[in-house]
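Suppose you are handed a protein chain with no further information: no name, no annotation, nothing but its sequence. What can you learn? This example shows the usual starting point.
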Amino acid sequence: MYKKIMVPLDGSELAECVLPHVEGFIASCQVNTIIFVRAVKPEPMISRGAYATGEVDFTVIEENTKRIEEEKKASAKNYLDQVVGRLKHDGVEFQTEVIVGTVAESLIDYAEANHIDMILIATHGRSGVSRWVRGSIADRILRGSGIPVLMVRAPGTMGEKKA
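A reasonable first move is to predict its three-dimensional structure. Written in structure tokens, the prediction is:
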């Protein structure tokens, strides 16, 4: 049923709480492909109107912006490769993908364009004002995509029952 699973990671230890579940799917389901995805926000371009003096070389600014974005993408790719290196494949194809854009929307677009069967994502478990102020990528993906989403609450986050 779930042959192609997407696992968004943001580089945090919290997001990696999904990894044991990834291994569980590998062991118990007939998963063919797992794609680990990291979305990076694009570097903001400085508008020409911000420097009315005319003494700014916009070519240099644009080159630096592109260089910073490429460095962010390379760092994200390196991180994903390290994550994949820690997991057992057991006949499952692992892929990594770095996408640039607004996080939730880019992940939804990627999942839909690549015919993902399920999204497996960690959630901070925020509620109330914290959720309103900081938002929830996992919630936006759940509400914005027609693809099944399995949300894993990270240990130690709000809402966890105390023993």
